[in-house]
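Structure tokens please, single chain.
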Amino acid sequence: MLVVVLQGGVVQSVISDDPKCPIREVTVIDYDTEGAGAKELCESAQMVPQADGSEVAAFVCAWPVTDAEIGLNGLRDITQNDLEARWGSATA
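Here you go.
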């Protein structure tokens, strides 16, 4: 499994639990440039070609694929008990 780990919409890591994963690097393109100034765009963004021939500014960053340090094979649906353990019995 290949997983992109986000927190608050920001990439934290790219991980895999497959030691034979042929992908060693993932490129993340973030089109959310709202609020970025001209200097930040010039220093950190790239123009990304689009299917219609246009180009759009985006932040582009390569992430190495690292070994998973979380139990990806243990992913499961959240239960009522999980919700109560986190927020107490007042969950609806």
